[in-house]
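Obj: model holo form, ligand = flavin-adenine dinucleotide.
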Amino acid sequence: MRTLVLFTRDLRVHDHPALAEATRSGPEVVPLFVRDPRLEGRAPNRERFLLESLADLDRSLERVGGHLILRRGAVVDETMAVARAARCTAVHVASDVSSYAHRRERALSDACASDGIELRVFPANAVVEPGRVTPAARESYRVFTPYLRAWSQVPRRALASAPDRICVPAGIALGPRPDPSAVRPRSVDLPPGGERAGRRRMHAFFGRELAGYGASRNDLAADATSRLSPYLRFGCVSATEVSFRASATPGSQELVRQLAWRDFFLQLLDADPSLAWGDLRPTADVDGLPAVSDVAFDAWCEGRTGLPLVDAGMRQLLREGWMHNRARLVTASFLTRRLGVSWPAGERHFARLLLDADPANNAGNWQWTAGTGTDPRRTRTLNPVLQAKRYDPTGGYVRRYVHELADVEAPLLFTPWKDPVLLARTGYPEPIVPVNA
Ligand code: FAD
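Output (holo C-alpha coordinates):
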Protein backbone atom coordinates (compact mmCIF):
# COMPACT_ATOMS: atom_id res chain seq x y z
CA MET A 1 0.00 0.00 0.00
CA ARG A 2 1.47 3.35 -1.01
CA THR A 3 -0.65 6.46 -0.51
CA LEU A 4 -0.32 9.94 -1.97
CA VAL A 5 -1.61 12.59 0.42
CA LEU A 6 -2.58 15.70 -1.52
CA PHE A 7 -2.37 18.72 0.81
CA THR A 8 -4.55 21.68 -0.13
CA ARG A 9 -5.53 24.03 2.69
CA ASP A 10 -4.83 21.58 5.47
CA LEU A 11 -1.17 22.46 5.98
CA ARG A 12 -0.45 20.63 9.23
CA VAL A 13 0.53 17.27 10.67
CA HIS A 14 -1.57 17.42 13.88
CA ASP A 15 -5.16 16.25 13.57
CA HIS A 16 -4.83 15.52 9.86
CA PRO A 17 -7.17 12.56 9.22
CA ALA A 18 -5.99 11.96 5.62
CA LEU A 19 -2.32 11.82 6.65
CA ALA A 20 -2.99 9.79 9.80
CA GLU A 21 -4.95 7.18 7.84
CA ALA A 22 -2.25 7.03 5.13
CA THR A 23 0.46 6.30 7.69
CA ARG A 24 -1.78 3.70 9.36
CA SER A 25 -2.41 1.86 6.10
CA GLY A 26 1.24 1.43 5.17
CA PRO A 27 4.65 2.93 5.85
CA GLU A 28 5.12 4.58 2.47
CA VAL A 29 3.47 7.95 1.95
CA VAL A 30 3.90 10.60 -0.74
CA PRO A 31 3.01 14.02 0.76
CA LEU A 32 2.34 16.40 -2.13
CA PHE A 33 1.34 20.03 -2.58
CA VAL A 34 0.65 21.45 -6.05
CA ARG A 35 0.78 25.20 -6.59
CA ASP A 36 -1.79 26.24 -9.16
CA PRO A 37 -0.28 29.14 -11.17
CA ARG A 38 -3.79 30.44 -11.88
CA LEU A 39 -4.12 31.35 -8.21
CA GLU A 40 -0.78 33.14 -7.97
CA GLY A 41 -0.35 36.92 -7.94
CA ARG A 42 -3.85 37.70 -6.67
CA ALA A 43 -3.15 38.14 -2.99
CA PRO A 44 0.56 38.47 -2.12
CA ASN A 45 -0.17 38.52 1.63
CA ARG A 46 -1.74 35.08 1.45
CA GLU A 47 0.89 33.85 -0.99
CA ARG A 48 3.64 34.72 1.48
CA PHE A 49 1.71 33.03 4.30
CA LEU A 50 1.16 29.95 2.10
CA LEU A 51 4.86 29.62 1.26
CA GLU A 52 5.81 29.98 4.92
CA SER A 53 3.24 27.33 5.78
CA LEU A 54 4.60 24.96 3.14
CA ALA A 55 8.17 25.46 4.36
CA ASP A 56 6.99 24.74 7.89
CA LEU A 57 5.08 21.63 6.80
CA ASP A 58 8.19 20.39 5.00
CA ARG A 59 10.20 20.81 8.23
CA SER A 60 7.54 18.96 10.26
CA LEU A 61 7.59 16.06 7.80
CA GLU A 62 11.40 16.01 7.87
CA ARG A 63 11.35 15.62 11.64
CA VAL A 64 9.54 12.28 11.20
CA GLY A 65 11.70 11.09 8.32
CA GLY A 66 9.77 12.45 5.32
CA HIS A 67 9.54 15.62 3.25
CA LEU A 68 7.05 17.52 1.17
CA ILE A 69 7.01 16.97 -2.59
CA LEU A 70 6.12 20.14 -4.50
CA ARG A 71 4.85 20.68 -7.99
CA ARG A 72 3.55 23.69 -9.91
CA GLY A 73 0.83 23.31 -12.56
CA ALA A 74 -2.67 21.92 -13.05
CA VAL A 75 -3.43 20.28 -9.70
CA VAL A 76 -5.08 17.09 -10.91
CA ASP A 77 -2.61 16.48 -13.78
CA GLU A 78 0.38 16.98 -11.50
CA THR A 79 -1.11 14.81 -8.77
CA MET A 80 -1.81 11.96 -11.16
CA ALA A 81 1.67 12.23 -12.68
CA VAL A 82 3.27 11.88 -9.23
CA ALA A 83 0.85 9.11 -8.22
CA ARG A 84 1.67 7.11 -11.35
CA ALA A 85 5.42 7.67 -11.13
CA ALA A 86 5.43 6.63 -7.46
CA ARG A 87 3.06 3.71 -8.16
CA CYS A 88 0.59 4.84 -5.50
CA THR A 89 -2.46 2.70 -4.88
CA ALA A 90 -4.49 5.41 -3.15
CA VAL A 91 -4.86 9.18 -3.08
CA HIS A 92 -6.08 10.96 0.05
CA VAL A 93 -7.42 14.50 -0.02
CA ALA A 94 -9.39 16.74 2.33
CA SER A 95 -12.94 17.74 1.45
CA ASP A 96 -13.53 21.42 0.77
CA VAL A 97 -16.43 23.64 -0.14
CA SER A 98 -15.63 26.15 -2.89
CA SER A 99 -16.60 25.57 -6.52
CA TYR A 100 -12.86 25.33 -7.30
CA ALA A 101 -12.49 22.57 -4.67
CA HIS A 102 -15.59 20.74 -5.93
CA ARG A 103 -14.25 20.78 -9.50
CA ARG A 104 -10.85 19.56 -8.29
CA GLU A 105 -12.40 16.69 -6.36
CA ARG A 106 -14.58 15.61 -9.29
CA ALA A 107 -11.65 15.68 -11.72
CA LEU A 108 -9.47 13.78 -9.24
CA SER A 109 -12.18 11.20 -8.78
CA ASP A 110 -12.47 10.64 -12.58
CA ALA A 111 -8.70 10.49 -13.05
CA CYS A 112 -8.19 8.07 -10.15
CA ALA A 113 -11.04 5.86 -11.37
CA SER A 114 -9.54 5.58 -14.84
CA ASP A 115 -6.12 4.68 -13.36
CA GLY A 116 -7.53 2.17 -10.89
CA ILE A 117 -6.34 4.26 -7.92
CA GLU A 118 -8.55 4.55 -4.86
CA LEU A 119 -9.54 8.13 -3.96
CA ARG A 120 -10.49 8.80 -0.34
CA VAL A 121 -11.85 12.14 0.81
CA PHE A 122 -11.37 13.08 4.48
CA PRO A 123 -12.70 15.77 6.77
CA ALA A 124 -10.17 18.49 7.62
CA ASN A 125 -11.49 21.99 7.58
CA ALA A 126 -14.73 22.24 9.56
CA VAL A 127 -15.68 21.14 13.07
CA VAL A 128 -18.89 19.64 11.68
CA GLU A 129 -18.50 18.74 8.02
CA PRO A 130 -20.96 20.44 5.65
CA GLY A 131 -23.98 18.23 5.06
CA ARG A 132 -23.74 16.48 8.45
CA VAL A 133 -26.73 18.55 9.62
CA THR A 134 -29.39 19.81 7.26
CA PRO A 135 -32.85 21.23 7.84
CA ALA A 136 -35.90 19.42 6.48
CA ALA A 137 -36.29 19.89 2.71
CA ARG A 138 -33.13 21.95 2.20
CA GLU A 139 -29.44 21.31 1.59
CA SER A 140 -28.21 23.90 4.08
CA TYR A 141 -29.28 26.06 6.99
CA ARG A 142 -29.82 29.71 6.14
CA VAL A 143 -30.46 30.96 9.66
CA PHE A 144 -27.74 30.66 12.27
CA THR A 145 -29.65 29.90 15.50
CA PRO A 146 -31.31 26.65 14.37
CA TYR A 147 -28.03 25.67 12.73
CA LEU A 148 -26.16 26.22 16.00
CA ARG A 149 -28.72 24.11 17.85
CA ALA A 150 -28.31 21.20 15.41
CA TRP A 151 -24.52 21.71 15.11
CA SER A 152 -24.09 21.47 18.88
CA GLN A 153 -25.72 18.02 18.94
CA VAL A 154 -23.44 16.39 16.34
CA PRO A 155 -20.94 13.90 17.83
CA ARG A 156 -17.40 15.11 17.10
CA ARG A 157 -14.85 12.93 15.35
CA ALA A 158 -11.81 11.90 17.38
CA LEU A 159 -8.66 13.96 16.90
CA ALA A 160 -6.12 12.25 14.62
CA SER A 161 -2.60 11.82 16.01
CA ALA A 162 0.37 13.37 14.28
CA PRO A 163 2.47 10.68 12.56
CA ASP A 164 5.68 9.64 14.33
CA ARG A 165 7.29 8.19 11.23
CA ILE A 166 6.85 8.80 7.50
CA CYS A 167 8.73 7.05 4.75
CA VAL A 168 8.67 8.79 1.36
CA PRO A 169 9.67 6.39 -1.46
CA ALA A 170 13.02 7.25 -3.06
CA GLY A 171 13.35 8.59 -6.58
CA ILE A 172 10.57 11.22 -6.59
CA ALA A 173 11.89 14.68 -7.46
CA LEU A 174 11.40 17.12 -4.59
CA GLY A 175 10.27 19.93 -6.88
CA PRO A 176 10.82 23.67 -6.30
CA ARG A 177 11.32 24.49 -2.59
CA PRO A 178 9.01 27.13 -1.10
CA ASP A 179 10.78 30.49 -0.95
CA PRO A 180 8.67 32.99 1.03
CA SER A 181 11.21 35.75 0.42
CA ALA A 182 10.35 35.63 -3.29
CA VAL A 183 6.94 37.20 -2.58
CA ARG A 184 6.60 40.83 -1.61
CA PRO A 185 3.51 41.08 0.58
CA ARG A 186 1.29 44.15 0.47
CA SER A 187 1.21 44.51 4.25
CA VAL A 188 4.24 45.29 6.38
CA ASP A 189 3.12 43.68 9.62
CA LEU A 190 2.03 40.12 8.88
CA PRO A 191 2.11 37.24 11.36
CA PRO A 192 4.28 34.27 10.33
CA GLY A 193 2.58 31.42 8.48
CA GLY A 194 2.79 27.76 9.40
CA GLU A 195 1.61 25.15 11.82
CA ARG A 196 4.20 25.86 14.48
CA ALA A 197 3.32 29.57 14.57
CA GLY A 198 -0.38 28.67 14.59
CA ARG A 199 0.02 26.23 17.46
CA ARG A 200 2.04 28.78 19.44
CA ARG A 201 -0.82 31.25 18.94
CA MET A 202 -3.38 28.64 19.97
CA HIS A 203 -1.46 27.67 23.12
CA ALA A 204 -0.92 31.33 24.07
CA PHE A 205 -4.61 32.07 23.58
CA PHE A 206 -5.80 29.10 25.62
CA GLY A 207 -3.10 29.67 28.23
CA ARG A 208 -3.57 33.34 28.93
CA GLU A 209 -6.16 35.16 26.89
CA LEU A 210 -9.25 32.98 26.62
CA ALA A 211 -10.51 33.90 30.09
CA GLY A 212 -11.46 37.41 29.01
CA TYR A 213 -12.61 36.47 25.51
CA GLY A 214 -16.37 36.46 26.10
CA ALA A 215 -16.34 39.87 27.76
CA SER A 216 -13.72 41.56 25.57
CA ARG A 217 -14.08 40.11 22.10
CA ASN A 218 -15.78 43.31 20.95
CA ASP A 219 -13.38 45.61 22.77
CA LEU A 220 -11.36 46.97 19.88
CA ALA A 221 -8.43 48.36 21.85
CA ALA A 222 -8.07 45.16 23.95
CA ASP A 223 -7.37 43.06 20.84
CA ALA A 224 -8.57 40.06 22.84
CA THR A 225 -9.64 37.67 20.09
CA SER A 226 -7.60 34.61 19.15
CA ARG A 227 -6.20 35.86 15.80
CA LEU A 228 -6.31 32.23 14.75
CA SER A 229 -8.28 32.92 11.57
CA PRO A 230 -5.32 32.89 9.11
CA TYR A 231 -4.14 29.59 10.61
CA LEU A 232 -7.64 28.13 10.34
CA ARG A 233 -7.93 29.43 6.77
CA PHE A 234 -4.81 27.51 5.67
CA GLY A 235 -5.49 24.58 7.97
CA CYS A 236 -2.25 25.16 9.90
CA VAL A 237 -4.45 24.65 12.95
CA SER A 238 -7.42 22.30 13.00
CA ALA A 239 -10.81 23.86 13.81
CA THR A 240 -11.78 20.53 15.40
CA GLU A 241 -8.81 20.72 17.75
CA VAL A 242 -9.57 24.35 18.67
CA SER A 243 -13.17 23.37 19.38
CA PHE A 244 -12.05 20.40 21.51
CA ARG A 245 -9.77 22.61 23.56
CA ALA A 246 -12.48 25.24 23.89
CA SER A 247 -15.10 22.71 24.98
CA ALA A 248 -12.75 21.56 27.74
CA THR A 249 -12.14 25.12 28.97
CA PRO A 250 -14.72 26.78 31.21
CA GLY A 251 -16.19 30.01 29.88
CA SER A 252 -15.38 29.36 26.25
CA GLN A 253 -18.91 28.96 24.83
CA GLU A 254 -18.53 32.22 22.94
CA LEU A 255 -15.45 30.92 21.11
CA VAL A 256 -17.24 27.68 20.22
CA ARG A 257 -20.09 29.81 18.88
CA GLN A 258 -17.68 31.67 16.57
CA LEU A 259 -16.40 28.36 15.22
CA ALA A 260 -20.02 27.45 14.53
CA TRP A 261 -20.39 30.66 12.50
CA ARG A 262 -17.40 29.54 10.47
CA ASP A 263 -18.99 26.13 9.83
CA PHE A 264 -22.32 27.81 9.09
CA PHE A 265 -20.86 29.73 6.14
CA LEU A 266 -18.89 26.68 4.97
CA GLN A 267 -22.07 24.58 4.76
CA LEU A 268 -23.85 27.40 2.90
CA LEU A 269 -21.14 27.66 0.24
CA ASP A 270 -20.87 23.90 -0.04
CA ALA A 271 -24.57 23.69 -0.89
CA ASP A 272 -24.60 26.76 -3.14
CA PRO A 273 -21.29 27.89 -4.71
CA SER A 274 -22.93 31.05 -6.04
CA LEU A 275 -22.92 32.48 -2.50
CA ALA A 276 -19.35 33.55 -3.28
CA TRP A 277 -20.51 36.09 -5.88
CA GLY A 278 -24.31 36.44 -5.76
CA ASP A 279 -26.91 37.50 -3.21
CA LEU A 280 -28.36 34.71 -1.15
CA ARG A 281 -31.48 36.85 -0.66
CA PRO A 282 -31.60 39.73 -3.11
CA THR A 283 -33.13 42.75 -1.42
CA ALA A 284 -33.96 46.31 -2.30
CA ASP A 285 -32.79 47.51 1.11
CA VAL A 286 -30.00 49.77 -0.08
CA ASP A 287 -31.90 51.11 -3.10
CA GLY A 288 -32.39 54.83 -2.99
CA LEU A 289 -28.89 55.64 -1.83
CA PRO A 290 -27.03 57.97 -4.21
CA ALA A 291 -24.37 56.20 -6.28
CA VAL A 292 -20.97 56.68 -4.72
CA SER A 293 -18.00 58.02 -6.66
CA ASP A 294 -14.79 56.10 -7.24
CA VAL A 295 -13.12 58.74 -5.10
CA ALA A 296 -15.26 57.75 -2.10
CA PHE A 297 -14.59 54.05 -2.69
CA ASP A 298 -10.84 54.72 -2.89
CA ALA A 299 -11.04 56.77 0.31
CA TRP A 300 -12.71 53.78 2.01
CA CYS A 301 -10.03 51.37 0.72
CA GLU A 302 -7.20 53.64 1.87
CA GLY A 303 -8.69 54.59 5.26
CA ARG A 304 -9.28 58.27 4.41
CA THR A 305 -13.04 58.58 4.90
CA GLY A 306 -12.79 61.08 7.75
CA LEU A 307 -14.62 58.65 10.04
CA PRO A 308 -11.96 57.61 12.55
CA LEU A 309 -13.21 54.10 13.33
CA VAL A 310 -13.74 53.24 9.66
CA ASP A 311 -10.27 54.57 8.83
CA ALA A 312 -8.65 52.69 11.72
CA GLY A 313 -10.16 49.41 10.52
CA MET A 314 -9.16 49.92 6.90
CA ARG A 315 -5.63 50.91 7.89
CA GLN A 316 -5.33 47.88 10.15
CA LEU A 317 -6.25 45.76 7.13
CA LEU A 318 -3.61 47.46 4.97
CA ARG A 319 -0.96 47.13 7.66
CA GLU A 320 -1.61 43.66 9.09
CA GLY A 321 -3.62 41.75 6.46
CA TRP A 322 -6.19 41.25 9.21
CA MET A 323 -8.92 43.31 10.83
CA HIS A 324 -10.77 43.00 14.13
CA ASN A 325 -14.25 41.53 13.64
CA ARG A 326 -16.01 44.59 15.11
CA ALA A 327 -14.11 46.85 12.72
CA ARG A 328 -14.99 44.54 9.80
CA LEU A 329 -18.64 44.93 10.70
CA VAL A 330 -18.40 48.72 10.92
CA THR A 331 -16.35 49.21 7.73
CA ALA A 332 -18.54 46.81 5.72
CA SER A 333 -21.74 48.38 7.01
CA PHE A 334 -20.43 51.86 6.18
CA LEU A 335 -19.56 50.84 2.62
CA THR A 336 -22.75 48.98 1.81
CA ARG A 337 -25.39 50.76 3.84
CA ARG A 338 -24.08 54.30 4.06
CA LEU A 339 -22.12 54.67 0.80
CA GLY A 340 -24.50 52.34 -1.07
CA VAL A 341 -21.71 50.30 -2.71
CA SER A 342 -22.73 46.72 -3.43
CA TRP A 343 -20.95 44.20 -1.22
CA PRO A 344 -18.86 42.35 -3.88
CA ALA A 345 -16.66 45.45 -4.35
CA GLY A 346 -15.84 45.49 -0.64
CA GLU A 347 -15.48 41.73 -0.52
CA ARG A 348 -12.91 41.85 -3.34
CA HIS A 349 -10.88 44.51 -1.54
CA PHE A 350 -10.89 42.43 1.65
CA ALA A 351 -9.96 39.32 -0.37
CA ARG A 352 -6.91 41.07 -1.84
CA LEU A 353 -5.51 41.79 1.62
CA LEU A 354 -6.93 39.49 4.30
CA LEU A 355 -4.80 36.52 5.29
CA ASP A 356 -7.94 34.69 6.39
CA ALA A 357 -10.05 35.49 3.30
CA ASP A 358 -11.96 32.53 2.01
CA PRO A 359 -15.01 32.60 -0.22
CA ALA A 360 -17.37 31.14 2.36
CA ASN A 361 -16.58 33.40 5.30
CA ASN A 362 -15.74 36.55 3.39
CA ALA A 363 -18.78 36.56 1.08
CA GLY A 364 -21.02 35.11 3.80
CA ASN A 365 -20.15 37.84 6.29
CA TRP A 366 -20.31 40.59 3.67
CA GLN A 367 -23.80 39.49 2.69
CA TRP A 368 -24.83 39.24 6.33
CA THR A 369 -23.66 42.84 6.86
CA ALA A 370 -25.18 44.12 3.62
CA GLY A 371 -28.50 42.50 4.44
CA THR A 372 -28.58 40.26 1.36
CA GLY A 373 -27.49 37.04 3.04
CA THR A 374 -28.45 35.05 6.09
CA ASP A 375 -30.65 36.61 8.80
CA PRO A 376 -31.28 39.82 6.80
CA ARG A 377 -32.26 42.74 9.02
CA ARG A 378 -32.80 46.31 8.00
CA THR A 379 -31.87 47.65 11.42
CA ARG A 380 -28.36 46.26 11.23
CA THR A 381 -26.82 49.48 9.86
CA LEU A 382 -23.98 50.43 12.19
CA ASN A 383 -23.25 54.08 12.90
CA PRO A 384 -19.43 54.41 13.03
CA VAL A 385 -19.52 57.18 15.64
CA LEU A 386 -21.83 55.30 18.02
CA GLN A 387 -19.88 52.09 17.44
CA ALA A 388 -16.63 53.88 18.32
CA LYS A 389 -18.14 55.27 21.52
CA ARG A 390 -19.33 51.81 22.50
CA TYR A 391 -16.48 49.53 21.41
CA ASP A 392 -13.48 51.89 21.53
CA PRO A 393 -14.51 54.23 24.35
CA THR A 394 -10.98 55.37 25.19
CA GLY A 395 -10.01 55.65 21.52
CA GLY A 396 -7.04 53.30 21.92
CA TYR A 397 -7.83 51.39 18.72
CA VAL A 398 -8.27 54.49 16.57
CA ARG A 399 -5.08 56.10 17.87
CA ARG A 400 -3.13 52.88 17.15
CA TYR A 401 -3.90 53.05 13.43
CA VAL A 402 -4.82 56.67 12.64
CA HIS A 403 -1.56 58.33 13.50
CA GLU A 404 -2.70 61.87 12.64
CA LEU A 405 -5.05 61.59 15.62
CA ALA A 406 -2.52 60.00 17.99
CA ASP A 407 -2.69 62.90 20.46
CA VAL A 408 -6.46 63.47 20.30
CA GLU A 409 -8.54 62.29 23.23
CA ALA A 410 -12.11 60.98 23.30
CA PRO A 411 -14.77 62.31 22.86
CA LEU A 412 -13.34 64.69 20.21
CA LEU A 413 -11.60 61.67 18.68
CA PHE A 414 -15.02 60.32 17.62
CA THR A 415 -15.96 63.50 15.72
CA PRO A 416 -12.76 65.37 14.81
CA TRP A 417 -14.57 67.39 12.13
CA LYS A 418 -16.18 69.39 14.93
CA ASP A 419 -12.82 71.11 15.45
CA PRO A 420 -11.65 72.64 12.14
CA VAL A 421 -8.41 73.78 13.78
CA LEU A 422 -7.67 70.16 14.66
CA LEU A 423 -8.28 69.06 11.06
CA ALA A 424 -6.02 71.82 9.75
CA ARG A 425 -3.28 70.93 12.26
CA THR A 426 -3.37 67.16 11.70
CA GLY A 427 -4.30 67.00 8.02
CA TYR A 428 -7.03 64.46 8.89
CA PRO A 429 -9.82 64.65 6.25
CA GLU A 430 -13.40 65.90 6.59
CA PRO A 431 -15.99 63.04 6.50
CA ILE A 432 -16.78 61.99 2.91
CA VAL A 433 -20.47 61.78 3.87
CA PRO A 434 -22.33 63.29 6.81
CA VAL A 435 -22.87 60.92 9.73
CA ASN A 436 -25.16 61.49 12.72
CA ALA A 437 -23.14 61.78 15.87
P1 FAD B 1 -12.03 34.90 17.09
O1 FAD B 1 -13.00 35.86 17.65
O2 FAD B 1 -10.91 34.49 17.95
O3 FAD B 1 -12.88 33.64 16.63
C1 FAD B 1 -12.30 32.33 16.49
C2 FAD B 1 -12.55 31.84 15.10
O4 FAD B 1 -13.95 31.76 14.84
C3 FAD B 1 -12.01 32.77 14.01
O5 FAD B 1 -10.64 32.57 13.81
C4 FAD B 1 -12.87 32.38 12.81
O6 FAD B 1 -12.39 31.23 12.18
C5 FAD B 1 -14.21 32.06 13.47
N1 FAD B 1 -15.09 33.24 13.38
C6 FAD B 1 -15.19 34.27 14.24
N2 FAD B 1 -16.16 35.13 13.83
C7 FAD B 1 -16.65 34.63 12.68
C8 FAD B 1 -17.65 35.04 11.76
N3 FAD B 1 -18.38 36.18 11.94
N4 FAD B 1 -17.87 34.30 10.66
C9 FAD B 1 -17.18 33.17 10.44
N5 FAD B 1 -16.22 32.71 11.28
C10 FAD B 1 -15.96 33.43 12.37
N6 FAD B 1 -13.56 35.39 8.74
C11 FAD B 1 -12.75 34.59 8.04
O7 FAD B 1 -12.25 33.60 8.58
N7 FAD B 1 -12.48 34.84 6.72
C12 FAD B 1 -13.00 35.93 6.08
O8 FAD B 1 -12.74 36.11 4.89
C13 FAD B 1 -13.83 36.81 6.81
N8 FAD B 1 -14.35 37.92 6.24
C14 FAD B 1 -15.19 38.73 6.96
C15 FAD B 1 -15.77 39.85 6.33
C16 FAD B 1 -16.64 40.67 7.03
C17 FAD B 1 -17.27 41.85 6.34
C18 FAD B 1 -16.93 40.39 8.37
C19 FAD B 1 -17.89 41.26 9.14
C20 FAD B 1 -16.37 39.30 9.00
C21 FAD B 1 -15.50 38.46 8.31
N9 FAD B 1 -14.92 37.32 8.91
C22 FAD B 1 -14.11 36.49 8.18
C23 FAD B 1 -15.31 36.91 10.27
C24 FAD B 1 -14.46 37.44 11.42
O9 FAD B 1 -14.30 38.82 11.31
C25 FAD B 1 -13.10 36.78 11.52
O10 FAD B 1 -13.22 35.39 11.46
C26 FAD B 1 -12.42 37.14 12.84
O11 FAD B 1 -12.30 38.53 12.96
C27 FAD B 1 -11.07 36.49 12.92
O12 FAD B 1 -10.39 36.90 14.06
P2 FAD B 1 -10.05 35.88 15.22
O13 FAD B 1 -9.39 34.68 14.68
O14 FAD B 1 -9.31 36.64 16.26
O15 FAD B 1 -11.51 35.51 15.72
